[in-house]
Amino acid sequence: MIFRPPGKEDGAGILKLVHQLGVLDINSAYAYMLIGEHHAGTSVVAEIDGELVGFISAYLLPADPETVFVWQVGVAKAGRGKGLATRMLVEILKRPACADVRYLDTTIGPTNEPSQALFRGLARRLDTGMEENELFSAELFDAFDEGEPHDPHEPEILFRIGPFDGQRVNALSS
Asked: Given Cys at both, which of 18, 75, 117, 136 links 54, Cβ 3.0 to 4.6 Å?
């Protein structure tokens, strides 16, 4: 298993993986290229034998560089059952770009129990607290309807993990 920062050339592979997973919001090809171009230091891709089997897109909050926001986590079938998502999160937190990070934020829908378990488990491994508060309501997503048929979107719950320190992060095995 190889973990590495994504490059802009990984955008197509990430988009393909998102389509295959069928559970993540699909962003534009341009957005996935920008992850590799602008957020490589805080994002990760995982490969097995040259095949992309996982990715996490994340970035430091511009107004709060002590917080890394995890935007999307995707793991292909070939990468499941190996603790890959947790290992990728640890990989990001150990990066130089996250040296000053003390909090990890992400949003998760209320019915996405696997993701909730992933981040609750990370909080336990970091031996720190976690707060959960609604960040985006379902009604806010409805504002994007513009009269077109769409799938309803669940609210997004903000999971805030921390504070934690670099020594605790570095003690984690990936």
From this structure: 75
